[in-house]
Amino acid sequence: MARVYICRDFFPDVLERLRGLHDFKVWQGVEEMPVAKLLREVPTIEGLLTCANHVTPEVFAAAPRLRVISNMGDGCDNIDLAEATRRGIPVGHTPHVLTETTADLAMGLLIAAARRIVEGEKFARDGRWKAHAHLELPGVDVNNKTLGIIGLGHIGTHIAKRARAFNMRVLYYSRSRKPETESLLNVEFRSNLHDMLAESDFVVIVVPLTNDTRNMFGAAEFAAMKPTAILVNVARGPIVDDAALYEALKKGRILRAALDVTSVEPLPLNSPLFTLDNIIIMPHIGSAVVETRRKMWTMAVEQFLMGLRGERMPNCINREVYDRE
User: Fold this and answer.
1) Catalytic amino acids?
2) pLDDT for the residue numbered 134
3) What is the pLDDT of residues 201-251, one digit of tens each?
């Protein structure tokens, strides 16, 4: 019976699978578990089940018995994978489960920003709806426009599928070209990011956060976009430079933006971005559908149990730890 720690109190019936097999504790807080609290809990644990919790070298150093991590999420940028790999600790994740759900939100944000849905709801709620609002809240059409997707992985591909229903011309920028997807969905590859930005009426970011993509979207990228363009980010906040985004929106270099992710989460209320009317800011709800979250948590728990049994996790993000065996 291993001693393990669960960093989120999700779906107790799923966690019941651990009962009787392992000695586990569960973080009961609503907010993310503080790192100081995690540091106090990890010295004797062998397994860690996380959800967006930051597992830093300091945490690894405090957990000499740790031998498996399972993370509820597609990306694992919250975990120091280099340190986990150095210590021979496999890290499981939950890829592809949230693909459709996140693609839905991306298109929802795109349409909401284009048609000013959030502004319109507030306009009515604030009592400013005195007559027809067509002059006060003019939007832009989505149909027959050009969409540029940065990162044509699973989520990007499903966004492209949805865009076709709106008769959109779809361009994409990616590290590798996807000829089969191009043929299947009639999407066009652009090897130069700025060339794609210059053609796009809407830009959606869906690349993972890596050293290469951190702050990849800054002043030069906003300068390359159309002044009528709308940016949507459903990937990770640090991919976009907050200061550059603020300046682009404030000075009208782009029309609007819609974010499900921010550089710091939760975004502080004193962030300059909250002072702007031409931005939608959501609290990172890309996968926040009960069915999707349950599937993600179930996969994370099942992989956790496999890892604790010494079995290979099928969705291990640092598979090289198994190659050493």
Assistant:
1) 236, 265, 284
2) 67
3) 999 999 999 999 999 999 999 999 999 999 999 999 999 999 999 999 999
Contact 68, 24 (CB under 8 A): no
- Residue 75: the pLDDT is 86
Element spanning 202, H or E: strand 202-205
Describe the crossing of helices 99-115 and 117-125 by its angle, rounded to 10 degrees: 60
Instruction: Name 170's bridge partners.
Output: 147
Distant-in-sequence contacts of 263-270, Cβ < 8 A, 24+ apart: 263/237, 263/238, 264/237, 265/237
Note whether 83 and 61 are within 8 A (CB): no
**Cβ atoms 45, 66 nearer than 8 A:** yes
Find, among 57, 19, 63, the residue nearest to 41 by Cα: 63
Quick one: pLDDT at residue 323?
A: 85
Q: What is the Cβ-side half-sphere exposure of residue 86, based on CA atoms within 13 angstroms?
A: 9
Parts of the chain with a pLDDT under 50? none
Token pair listed for 158: 């499903």
With residue 47 as reference, give the H or E element that holds it.
strand 47-50
Which DSSP string corresponds to 297-324?
Answer: HHHHHHHHHHHHTTPPPTTBTTTHHHHT
Task: Please answer whether residues 186 and 212 qualify as being in contact, where contact means their C-beta atoms are separated by less than 8 angstroms.
Answer: no
Strands 256-259 and 230-233: parallel
The first and second tokens of residue 86, run together, are: 């150095």
Q: Please report the pLDDT score of residue 132 as a whole number.
A: 73
Residue closest to 149 by CA, chosen among 118, 180, 114, 181? 181
Please give the pLDDT value at position 30.
83
With beta carbons less than 8 A apart as the criterion, state whether 230 and 114 touch: yes
Q: Which helix (H) or strand (E) holds 70?
A: strand 68-71
Structure tokens belonging to residue 187 = 């999407």
**Looking at residue 135, what is its pLDDT?**
76
Residues in Cβ contact with 277 at an 8 Å cutoff, skipping those fewer than 6 apart:
119
